[in-house]
Amino acid sequence: MDLRRLRAGEWVAAISGAALLLSLFLPWYRASCGPPGGGEGGCPELSGWESLSLLDVVLALIAAAAVSLLFVTASQQVPAVPIALDAVVTVLGILASVLALIRVLDLPDLAGGREWALWLGLAGTLGVAGGGWVAVRDERLSPPGRHTDATGRPAPPPPEIAPIRAPDREGAR
């Protein structure tokens, strides 16, 4: 496992995924109780797990994928697997952002108001999408005179290409 392989986008996506997963255990909504205008002091708070039916499991799986991006990138020897996972996490982050935004705009039936962890969850989904996007776009080109592999680690210079002489025209017949 080499932490030098990790790029800024992967760190952002993983931290945002952890924040999204944590937010599911915190209060997303205030339960509706009593008649309208009757006060909100005694209303219970509903966590993401309590207030979302299937969406909570989808968001948890997307958060786990974003966190796993950190470990996959640090442990892989070739950049193909992490780059592919970056692309998948980016698409999943966009999906999670749309789903969380729908839950911000359209409250569940039991909810009477929004709580602060809903905004943390939305920020987490946006961070997963943005971090994945930044990680996909990071190309890590080698500086002049210094050879590195695709992850930015020092590597031996590529071998010289030996020229091959073209065959004579008479030898081709």
Explain how this protein is built.
- This protein is mainly alpha-helical and 173 residues long.
- It has one domain.
- Helices cover 51% and strands 7% of the residues.
- The chain has 5 helices and 3 strands.
- A 3-stranded antiparallel beta sheet has the order 2-1-3.
- The model has no long low-confidence stretch (mean pLDDT 80).
State the end-to-end CA separation: 57 Å
Report the average pLDDT across residues.
80
Low-pLDDT stretches are none
How many domains in all?
Answer: 1
Q: What class, by secondary structure content?
A: mainly alpha
The profile of the biggest β sheet is: 3 strands, antiparallel
Q: How many whole angstroms does the radius of gyration measure?
A: 25 Å
Strand content: 5-15%
Total beta strands = 3
Helix content: 40-55%
Order of helices and strands: HEEHHHEH
Shape assignment: elongated
Output the strand order for the largest sheet.
2-1-3
What's the total helix number?
5
Map the helices and strands.
Blueprint: H1 8-23, E1 27-31, E2 45-47, H2 48-51, H3 55-75, H4 80-105, E3 111-114, H5 116-137
Antiparallel strand pairs: 1-2, 1-3
